[in-house]
TrEMBL record:
The keyword Protein transport does not apply. Keywords: Membrane, Transmembrane, Transmembrane helix. It comes from Adiantum capillus-veneris (Maidenhair fern). Residues 344-553 form the NFD4 C-terminal domain. The chain crosses the membrane at residues 12-33, 78-99, 106-131, 174-197, 209-231, 243-260, 346-363, 383-403, 415-434, 440-462, 474-498, 525-546. Residues 13-260 form the Nodulin-like domain. GO terms for cellular component: membrane. It is found in: Membrane. It is a multi-pass membrane protein. It holds the Pfam family Nodulin-like. This is Nodulin-like domain-containing protein. Residues 271-288 have a biased composition (Basic and acidic residues). Residues 271-293 are annotated as: Disordered.
Amino acid sequence: MVSLEALWRPRSRWTVLIAACWVEATAGLSYVFSTYSGALKSELSYDQRHINRLSVAKDLGDTVGLAAGLLCRVLPNWAVLSVGALLILGGYGLLWLLTDHHIPDLPFWLVCILIFIGTNGCTYLDTAALLACIPNFPSNRATAVGILKGFKGLCGAIFNQIYASFLSPDETSFILMLALGPALVMIPLIIVIGPLSHAELLQNEDDDVIFRLLYAAALLLAAYMLSVTLVQDFSSVSNTVNVIFTVVLLLILLLPLPIPKIADHLSRKRTEDDGSLKDPLLESRVDGSENGVTSKPTPTYVAACFMSLTEIREEKTFVEQTAAKGLSKLELAAADMTLRKAYGSINFWLLVLCMFFSLGSGTTAFNNLGQMGQSLGYENTQVFVSMTNIWNFTGRLAGGYFSELSTRKYGHPRTNMLAIFQLIMAVGHVFYAMAWPGTIYAAVFLVATGYGAHWAIFPTALSELFGLQNFGVLYNFVNMASPAGSLIYSGFIAGPIYDWQAKKQSSAVIDDTTLSCEGAVCFEVTFFIMAAVCVMGAALSIVLAFRTRSLYAIG
């Protein structure tokens, strides 16, 4: 079989980026738990409390990626991807054998471990994809990370669409698809994601054009998935139409395929144009010599000479070119950053606390979105979940684009933009708390967009401030701030307040599992608190920006 590496320009930066996007599109399996949880409940005779505990195991597996970070320090990317695919295959494969009754029933704690292993494999894919791309785009890190994280955010929508077309309503078979899908995707891509030489990493003026093409393809994918979701939520769609939807989806996913060739063509065209500008100037000089006339060098000839000298100077090493783009101070600061120094740095813990406040509050909002919609009288709460996925994706693209623009053009610290998106989330939480008619749509947009932007900005800031040597470990450590915050906010704020309001509304003493709350009071206090913690996160981001402003300053 012909590999993608043979079809594309071998080891191109763009080849690696696009392959990593497809890897990320299989690395968000934690987003589809609700699709197959019904099969676990019916086939294994579990109740809702069992499902909730399995959901916790799923969340832990998706965020506790320290092992993946440590392996990335000693193994190449292809090996880390292989380990991740095998963990997904093992975890979800055994879960399918269990739910399809091919093996005897297992203790509940062991099923929790299977869920943990399956989703934990995704952290290996995510970390390897980031580490494969971040060094390749030193001047566009946030842009590249935003695109990668955007594809991860759409993983759930992609898998759910394939399920709706070919497997629905067999949720057990969907678990088998989760086990096999990432492994099958890794087979052709694993040889593409490899290290590049410094010569292959040199940036050029066409990078922004290529990124615009990638953004266009990503936004088209998001718009298409939003349209399909709305059609499916508000009307009855036949299986034939679902199959057509899926075929179009797969074609859109293949749109970035020619981009490495386009980048190669633009690069060669620029080289040819530069050569054509110099040749006539040199020819005119030769013609003057043949006529026996010794003439002074013309201004154009002198300019041509200086152009050649400039081009010679532009043949720099990768590090020199990066320094020329204004990143030398950051690289110097992160050059000797060890794990011990990072963990002892105030800047690192400021970043962790920022993520604890903002990502934790966002995860809490998403986890309670269904209950929130029901308490406000909305019958179809699934549409809010679908909209959250789409706006989360859009936020990841926006966070990468605007933070890169702010940093490269104006020399602003990366976390300044993080503070802006945290304040956007705070406004969204206020809309949740007020619960006026229709404000839930605005709240979903603001919170999901701000939340998504974090996933493009914080990995980039982390790589700039603490280097790439230990990026995998540090990234997965900061990543744990999200479930830690959610655990505290949900367990000690959202849950108790909801139950308290539900008991106040109850006219009789009933079992706690049947308690339900109606009206804005169910989450009003919770989301005012969430807004406050987002403001605290923004304040810490500004403090971090102030501490690192000299590293980002231009000139």
